[in-house]
Specification:
It is built from two helices and two strands; from the N terminus they run ββαα. The protein is α+β, with helices and mostly antiparallel strands.
């Protein structure tokens, strides 16, 4: 699955620089995660870094973008040019 940022986001700016895939950007109201770029940090880290730094715990799994760890690893390889 990709991750999603909920309306609980306080725009604290700590998640965006932590994303190794540049999947997080400022949206109209709150930060947003591009599901095409989010690998839940698979390939980079053991845990999603945005979830680790979020002070309000507003970054759950996105039920609309379900992916296995294998699919996330394939996406990581494509994003990083290792495919």
């Amino acid at each position: 699955m990709a991750l999603i940022i909920t309306d609980d986001c306080i725009n604290c700016d700590v998640c965006e620089p932590e994303c190794p895939n540049s999947a997080i950007s400022q949206g109209d109201e709150i930060y947003e995660i591009d599901p095409n770029l989010c690998t839940e940090c698979v390939g980079h880290y053991d845990e999603p870094q945005c979830q680790q730094v979020c002070p309000v715990d507003c970054i759950p799994l996105d039920p609309n973008h379900q992916e296995t760890k294998e699919e996330l690893m394939e996406k990581y390889k494509i994003i990083t040019g290792q495919a």
